[in-house]
Structure formats: C-alpha cells, structure tokens
Amino acid sequence: MKHAHHDTLEQLNTSLNDPETLRTYKEHYDDYKPSLLPRLLGNMLIFFGNVVYGRAPTYLKFRAIEVIARVPYHSWSSASYTHLTLFFTDERRALRYSKSIRFADIAQANETMHVVVISRLAQAEARAGVLRHTLIPILFSFFYFWSSYILYFFHPKASYELNYLFESHAFQQYDEFLRVYGDVLRSKPIESSFLTHYGRTHANQYEFFRAVRNDEIIHRNTSIEVIQKL
Fold first, then answer.
1. For the chain, how big is the Rg over CA atoms in Å?
2. How far apart are CA 128 and CA 137, in angstroms?
3. Which of 62, 72, 174, 218 has the fewest CB atoms within 10 Å, i.e. is most exposed?
4. Nearest residue to 48 via CA among 128, 122, 139
5. Cβ–Cβ < 8 Å for 80, 104
C-alpha cells in the first residue's frame, strides 16, 4: 500500500503508542454526542455482540468485531458511487463524495488487514464454531451494511455517528485486552504474510494489537472530523 494519506495515518498510529499522546487524541472527541437513531442502532449492535461473544475481549470476539468493523467503509463507498452516478453534474457534491470514497477505501483495507491477521492468530488460541463465529458475524454485517448504506445515502452524519460508536467500542475492547494480557502478548510472536503485504512489521502480538487499538481510535475520530466537513 503506497499512498500519501496511508503514510500519514501510519505516522499517526505510531505516535499514539505514547500514552499521553493517545490520551490527548482520544479525549478530543470523547464528549461527542451522536443523535438518537445512531445511538439506538449502535447500542443494539454492541448489546447483541456482548450477548453472543461475552463482554470480555478474546481473539474470537475480535475476529467477529473485525468482520463487522470493515462493513461501513464498504457501504460508504457503495453509497458514494450511487450518489456520483445520480449527481455527476454537481461538481461540488462529486468532489465531496470522491474524498469520502478515498477515506473509506483506506479504512476498509486497514480493517481487512485486521480481520485476516486476527483470524490467523485466533486459530492458534481457540476453536471457532461455524454458527457463532462465521454465520452470526455475517448476519451482523448484512444488517450493519444496509443500515450504514441507507443512513449514508439520506443522512451521512448519522452513518458516521454510528461508526463513531462502533469504533469506540472496538477501541475499548482492544485497550482492555492490552491492559489485562499485555505481558503474555509480549511473549507471543506474530508472523503474517498479509501483515507484511500491508506494510507493517511487529516484534510480537502486543505491538500488533496496540497498532490495531490505535487504528480504531483513528477511525473513530476521523468519522467526526468528516462530519465537521459535511
């Protein structure tokens, strides 16, 4: 992946390894209050996710989270292309949606890396059930895709707010995982051709999951930054 914006995000990700930098970056949008509909949909997704996978972070729960987390970026790209097909004569609108597609494509590639690498790690930690860890995440993804698509098509702000809530939850899960299992994760190696293809190298699983945690808070904050430009 060779893209100037990608390189900038990688630099930001690395900077968030510093606890004080992370705290300041996170607090910037901690007090943001999404509107009612995104809150209802987001709380429903998180509630049922906790019912199915438990509240505690685990490798298999992360696999499910990442299958679902990449969905809104895909739906935004699809909805943006639809808008561009309908309103290609409106240059201002076309430019806005083209910029949205750029962010969505980079974030989707990032989330795809997460799910591929975490799925590989999870194979060594626990046995995945077909229903619980494959079919149910697909059903969640189907619901999330069309919720995000419809919201984005008619009210983009609400779709970004829904993503803000889901990425907030993902960040909290990874942050807890690092706090509880940090010492163990530092002793676990990580090897992944897909991770290398993406352009990252980590000495151990702690470094990998720390980078994933940082990705999620970047996605959360970027969702609000995009709203401010709508």
1. 17
2. 12
3. 218
4. 139
5. yes
88-136 confidence digits (pLDDT tens) = 777 877 777 777 788 888 999 999 999 999 999 999 998 888 888 889 9
Residue pLDDT, tens place only, 112-124? 999 999 999 999 9
What token pair was written down for 155?
Answer: 């009210």
Number of H helices, E strands in the chain: 11, 0
Encoded amino acid at 33, one letter: K
Q: How many CB atoms lie within 10 A of CB 211?
A: 21
Q: Identify whether the C-beta of residue 5 lies closer than 8 Å to the C-beta of residue 105.
A: no
Q: Which residue has the tokens 């972070």?
A: 57
Would you call 52 exposed, middle or buried from its count of C-beta atoms within 10 A (0-12, 13-18, 19+)? Answer: middle
Nearest-angstrom CA–CA distance, 97 and 206: 36
DSSP 8-state code for residue 155: -
Helix (H) or strand (E) holding 30: none
Which residue has tokens 């509240």? 55
60 and 133 Cβ atoms separated by less than 8 Å: yes
Q: What is the pTM of this model?
A: 0.92
Tell me which residue of 173, 216, 208, 183 sits closest to 57, measured CA to CA.
173
Please tell me whether residue 40 adopts helix, strand or coil conformation.
helix
Structure-token match 């990688």, residue found: 10
